[in-house]
Amino acid sequence: MSDLLYVSNSFAYNYSIQEADVIFLGIPFSSTSISCSSIFGPVLTRESLKLAEGYEEVPGRDVFKSLKVCDIGDLDVVPGDYSLTAERINETIKEIREVNKKAFLVFIGGEHLITLPIAGALKPKTIVQLDAHMDLRKDYLGNDFSHTTWAYHAKKKLNCDLVQIGARSFCEQEKKTAEEFGVVNDIKNPKEPIYLTVDMDVFDPRYVKTGLPVYNGLSPERVFEIIEKLKGKKLIGMDIVEIADNSLPSNTGFLAAEIIRKVFGVMV
Questions:
Q1: pLDDT tens by residue, 199-251
Q2: Which is more confidently placed, 33 or 267?
Q3: pLDDT given for residue 57 in this prediction
Q4: Residues 6 or more apart whose Cβ sits within 8 Å of residue 98
Q5: Phi/psi at 162 (5° precision)
Q6: Across the strands, what pairs with 107?
Q7: Contact 205, 220 (CB under 8 A)
Q8: pTM > 0.90: yes or no
Q9: What are the angstrom distances between the C-alpha of 79 and each of 15, 70, 85, 111, 120?
Q10: What are the structural domains of the chain?
Q11: 93-108 b/e with 16+ CB inside 10 Å = b?
């Protein structure tokens, strides 16, 4: 791919899938959420990334330029149909892995249900979930698969470890399920590889616009400290979900971009 001097992208250069260290995919699926839509999450994050600086004091370099990034665009989701959308997520990840087995995958939602098929395809040993909710319901309103049930089904399907940080809104049954599953709330010697999922409602509502805001949330500084604990660990992918903003400039989009920068910082 030749350089186009006056064309702007989210990063300084868009590499091919084959040579990329990091591959971006937007998944604007938002069909089971009971609140605001999150379909504009990929757009808001990309536009925010265009304005974000990549330099990090530690490790002392521009992390956006230190990694070869490929943004392959957005998945053509099937609105209202999780099953078909999940098939497309699985097939797309399979196609990516056929040509690049090692790239770190970044997914921008969309609602939190997208994490279930992603985790099913990547098969992490540990899922680190930053979230105001546990999402450990077996079903919700008679529906097995929703943004409030994905973690339950991921744990059952993968038998992986689950680390939940920031949870402060959940039902009694979810609390019991968390205890049965051995869910922990801190990163201590996690099994690798690790998948990171960030629901933007983990933050206090003063920082973000998200579908189901919950007060007494985490500060950006606290979330960045948690991300630092992943330094030196084998990360295979991450997602950022439940961005419910619909206009630019977006504080939520800028915070999502900052999360990505911090994750890149612990990778280089």
A1: 999 999 999 999 999 999 999 999 999 999 999 999 999 999 999 999 999 99
A2: 267
A3: 82
A4: none
A5: -130, 120
A6: 25, 239
A7: no
A8: yes
A9: 30, 25, 8, 12, 21
A10: 22-267 (3.40.800.10)
A11: beebeeebeebbbbbb
pLDDT(7) > 70: no
Contact 134, 174 (CB under 8 A): yes
Q: Is the pLDDT of residue 130 over 90?
A: yes
Tokens 């971009």: give the residue: 257
Lookup: tokens for 232: 């030196």
d(CA 119, CA 180): 21
Among 143, 39, 35, 154, smallest CA distance to 82 is for 143
Cα 155 from Cα 50, distance rounded (Å):
35
Q: What pLDDT shows up at residue 1?
A: 46
Asked if 171 and 137 touch (Cβ cutoff 8 Å), the reply is: yes
